[in-house]
Structures are given as C-alpha cells and as structure tokens.
2Fe-2S ferredoxin (Comamonas avium), 112 residues
Amino acid sequence: MAVIKILPHPEYCPEGKQLEVPAGTSICEALLDNNIKIEHACDMSCACTTCHVIVREGFNSLNAAEEEEEDLLDRAWGLEPQSRLSCQAIVAQKDLVVEIPKYSINHAKENH
Ligand code: FES
C-alpha cells in the first residue's frame, strides 16, 4: 500500500486528494478508481500522451519508463524531468506526490 497525494487541479480535483493504492497499480488506474477522471485516450495502452502526470515526490520508486513511453512523453504539454505517462507508471510501496498538468495534449491543440 502506498499513499498518493494528488495536488489540486482545477478541473479534476480542485481540493487535491489523498489516495491509498495497492502496490502494482498504475497511477492512471488509481486516479480513475478514485473518481479523478484523467484523460486516457488510448485506454492505457501507451499510445497517446493524454494521461501525462508529473511525479513530484517518489519518482524513483516507480518502474523505469520504457523507450516507447519516453518517445510519447516528448510530445506532452509541460514536460518535466519527473514526467510519466500515468498508465505506465506502476506504484510501489513508497508514497508519491503527483501533479496533473494543467493541460493535456488534446487541450493544448484546442487552445493554441
Ligand atoms: S492512456 Fe494513453 S498513454 Fe496512457
């Protein structure tokens, strides 16, 4: 079990939230299970970039990103060194702090 602290996001979780997540769950699944409806356009198959999150704490406890994920992340809005595709980032035992970026690649296209 790990605790994921979700930082406030105006649309998905304005107050922020604390989730208890069993090890082996992806961050994306954890968010969806807890009613935080992050986009996941490719249905968690590592083929889009809409599930991008930034792992502010605990990044190194996650499984390493595969090359495919890294390539997709290059297209993410607001990419940071601690960015992950949440559907590919598997929670271990360590607590995490996760930020959902303000925009996803879909929003970015609509707005600019
Ligand atoms: S849901 Fe598409 S890459 Fe995660």
In short: The beta strands are 2-6, 17-21, 52-57, 83-85, 96-99. Residues 28, 40-42, 44, 46-48, 50-51, 85, 87 surround FE2/S2 (inorganic) cluster (CB under 6 Å).
